[in-house]
Design brief:
Number of strands: 9
Strand order of the largest sheet: 1-3-4-5-2
CATH architecture of the largest domain: 3-Layer(aba) Sandwich
Mean pLDDT: 89
Structural class: alpha/beta
Number of helices: 4
């Protein structure tokens, strides 16, 4: 059985015949996996589009592939949001990663009375965005979840009416 590799190309559209991968995606493809021209890959835009592609060129700075077929063009998934208290940084990232793999579509980092708060919000948000992309690719999902800004319980309660159902878990 051959491996399936999924790469994130947010600019990918249904009518594209080619896709270029640069930066982190290219690094992973070329340096970590050591893929070469003629290798098969899968590409998603994180908005429901999934395509198969064949690598044509792998250079030092970028990878170029030809789209061979469209595998899925899923509409918006059913909304499944997670509000998670700001526990320790690594534990939060691990819990978030596993929830992305299970299929959440949105995450609200939540400030509660007993949480740890001392983190730079923009750096934290950027880290969660990277975790979201990595977990989406790991689980071979076509939708990248939205990472909301850090909110407190009052802000979350004000939004609760926008949800079909709300479930609370506590220890």
């Amino acid at each position: 059985m051959s491996h399936r590799f999924l790469f994130y190309a947010p600019a990918l559209e249904r009518d594209h015949t080619r896709v270029d991968l640069a930066d982190e995606e290219h690094h992973h493809l070329a340096r970590v996996l050591r893929l070469r021209a003629a290798d098969e890959i899968h590409v998603t835009n994180g908005r429901g589009l999934l395509a198969a592609a064949t690598l044509e060129r792998v250079t030092r700075a970028r990878s170029e592939a030809a789209i061979t077929r469209l595998l899925a063009d899923q509409g918006a998934p059913r909304r499944f949001a997670l509000a998670l208290a700001l526990i320790g940084r690594d534990r939060f990232a691990q819990a978030f990663e596993q929830c992305v793999e299970l299929g959440i579509t949105e995450c609200v980092p939540l400030v509660t009375a007993g949480c740890r708060r001392g983190r730079a919000e923009s750096a934290f948000h950027q880290r969660l965005e990277r975790v979201a992309v990595a977990a989406m690719k790991q689980a071979f999902r076509c939708h990248r979840p939205v990472v909301q800004p850090v909110a407190d319980v009052r802000a979350l309660c004000a939004r609760i009416g926008a949800f079909e159902r709300a479930v609370q878990f506590q220890q």
